[in-house]
Amino acid sequence: MTLPANFSEADWKIVSTLPSMVGGAAAVADNSGIFGMLKESMANVRAMMDGMKSYPNNQLISAMTPTRENAKEMKEMAMNRRTEIMAMLKEKGVQSPDALVALTLEEAARANSIIDTNASPEEAAEFKAWIIEIATKVVNSAKEGSTLGFGGTLVSDKETQFLADLKNVLC
Q1: 47: alpha, beta or left, given left = phi > 0 and alpha = psi -120 to 50?
Q2: How far is CA 94 from CA 90, 98, 136, 147, in A?
Q3: Which residue has the higher pLDDT, 20 or 77?
Q4: CB of 28 closer than 8 Å to CB of 97
């Protein structure tokens, strides 16, 4: 992954881990069970990869999205992101879904400021839209409160609140 020239390494770390954090927070915002969690995890990956289709000229999104040409580099980057996120969660004492959601919203606010300062207005708007799309696709991928897929609600009140809070932080 190439660090965009106008971002410090520390700022890029915050910005580049945000898509994964948002997808993870959306997945744990409410309990969807084991099968729901699998669906939400897959939706997170697909939504992140869809960024290139939706915003093909956005250099920030391109720097975070795998292609055939950079698959090996992106796999390494994903592992590094995971390690960075796990270290941050440990450092901050995050041990519950609610704590992960709260930390993700804090990180989204930090990333928002960084993006507004270091990216063009168009790139920043697209990046923020992409982040919201990731969260939206994750929460819409599995029912909450269902038993083996029966019953339940597609988007719970907790997920709706997370989406609202995320939009408020980014917009």
Answers
A1: alpha
A2: 6, 9, 23, 28
A3: 20
A4: yes
Domain range list for the chain: 9-170
Q: Which pLDDT value is given to residue 74? A: 63
Q: Decide: 132 and 104 in contact? Cβ < 8 Å.
A: no
pTM equals: 0.82
Residue 2 has pLDDT above 70, yes or no: no
Greater pLDDT, 57 or 78: 57
Angle at Cα 84 formed by Cα 56 and Cα 123, nearest 5°?
25
d(CA 30, CA 159): 6
Distance between CA 88 and CA 81 in Å, rounded? 10
Distance between CA atoms of residues 37 and 5, nearest Å: 36
